[in-house]
Amino acid sequence: MKYNKAILLKNGKTCLLRNGTEQDAQALLTNFILTHSQTDFLTTYPEETPFSVEQEREYLKTKEDSKREVSLVAEVDGVIIGSAGINTIREAEKTKHRASFGISIDQAWWGLGIGRALTEACIACAKDGGYAQLELEVVSANSKAFGLYQSVGFVEYGRNPRGFRSRLSGWQETVLMRLELD
Ligand SMILES: CC(C)(COP(=O)(O)OP(=O)(O)OC[C@H]1O[C@@H](n2cnc3c(N)ncnc32)[C@H](O)[C@@H]1OP(=O)(O)O)[C@@H](O)C(=O)NCCC(=O)NCCS
Question: Which CATH architecture has domain 4-132?
Fold first, then answer.
């Protein structure tokens, strides 16, 4: 899916929110590794990055060509500083109405409005893609992300006391959230 929107950040800079393209593969992987080393609230560790640059290129091409799924980047002054995306939970008749949402932003750019803008952009894309429900899983201690999700309408539908097992802190409780789109 294609997407393009410019937003004004709280520091006065302009941030471009757009779908990632094949050309962004290396920059996105670099940003992915950076963001996954900055917080203990994401699902994976930096070295668990699943893709090579070539695989990331193919992944981004698939998302750009998709009528439903999207991989968005946030770009400031030509540098990718964050990303977010939606993926179909499972391409089966009973589940294809459900999409999952994920987001990560370079810590140097937190608190400027990018998280809210990327989240709202993904919600808009999910509606355009015809999904009936957007879903996510967030560590309950991640009050910033939890607060952001609640503020855009996500509601909690369960908790998993052993959702993640962190190297640093052991069990992390995760909150399951969903947003109806229709
Ligand atoms: C969570 C994350 C995406 C938020 O992005 P961000 O760009 O810092 O968010 P924003 O600047 O748009 O702020 C979002 C809102 O959260 C609010 N907020 C900040 N701290 C908060 C807190 N402790 N509790 C509740 N709300 C909080 C802000 O006030 C803001 O609301 P506003 O738009 O009404 O001012 C970003 O911090 C991040 O990438 N974190 C690491 C990865 C991560 O946790 N991803 C989510 C995994 S589920």
Answer: 3-Layer(aba) Sandwich (3.40)
Distance CA 99, CA 86 (A): 6
- With a 6 Å cutoff on the Cβ, whether 112 touches ligand 1 is yes
How far apart CA 135 and CA 125 sit, in angstroms, is: 14
Q: Separation of 179 CA from ligand 1 center, angstroms? A: 18
Write the pLDDT tens digit of every residue in 116-160: 999 999 999 999 999 999 999 999 999 999 999 999 999 999 999
Whether 39 and 102 have beta carbons less than 8 Å apart is answered as: no
**Distance from residue 115's CA to the centre of ligand 1 (Å):** 6
| C-alpha–C-alpha distance, residues 64 and 55, integer Å | 14
